[in-house]
Write a structure and sequence with these properties.
three-stranded mixed β-sheet, 3 strands, about 5% strand, globular, binds zinc ion
Length: about 210
């Protein structure tokens, strides 16, 4: 029990520290370019001690949800969009998370967040946050500088191709999924390199 209290205090300190580092990310001239959004995401993730395996594995589900909410809040600020509330729910075992356009919320699978695979969990939150960014871009013409891309995203939101019906290959190559997968993969790849250098995170997969 005391461990949780200590970790909660740590989380508050981190939010204050990274607010300074991240503040002012997207004021005025729209969101920063994709590469800069990715670099800033790495900076945010590096400052969250709860993402270290020895800390993460001690956290209960609600503490874990709060860590993900904190990541989402920081990422949203960097991306110049409002943050989404994060909910934890039981989902289809094959699903890790989802972004709901109607409520503008991100749902993370209870089973997924209970696991100690930090990279997969970060991947999920960054991926779903990217969908929130795409959706915000579609609803706010002129926000995202690449008009052609926004048009593609708009069409794809209206005609989404679920994996259960169309299969993984078609699902992953539709515009909003291809973009969210590559964005999150880039973040994870670079974050894992940083973590490996610091010897903090062990790979749980081959
Ligand atoms: Zn997706």
């Amino acid at each position: 029990m005391e461990a949780y209290i200590a970790v909660a205090a740590l989380a508050a300190a981190v939010v204050m520290a990274s607010a300074g580092a991240v503040g002012g990310g997207a004021k005025g001239g729209g969101p920063p370019p994709r590469a800069e959004q990715i670099s800033k995401a790495i900076e945010i993730l590096k400052q969250i001690p709860e993402l270290r395996p020895e800390v993460w594995e001690r956290l209960d589900l609600e503490s874990r949800r709060q860590v993900l909410q904190s990541i989402e809040n920081h990422l949203a600020r960097v991306q110049g969009r409002p943050p989404c509330p994060i909910r934890v729910e039981r989902m289809n075992p094959r699903e890790f998370g989802g972004y709901d356009r109607a409520s503008k919320t991100i749902t993370v699978s209870e089973e997924h967040i209970a696991s100690d695979d930090i990279y997969e969990i970060i991947d999920t939150i960054v991926h779903e946050g990217r969908h929130a960014y795409q959706h915000y871009a579609v609803e706010h013409p002129g926000f995202h500088s690449d008009e052609r891309e926004v048009k593609e995203w708009k069409g794809n939101f209206e005609h989404y191709l679920p994996a259960e019906i169309y299969g993984m290959e078609i699902y992953r190559s539709q515009p909003i999924e291809a973009d969210a997968w590559s964005f999150a993969e880039e973040v994870i790849k670079r974050f894992s390199e940083v973590s490996d250098e610091r010897g903090e995170v062990k790979h749980s997969k081959g």
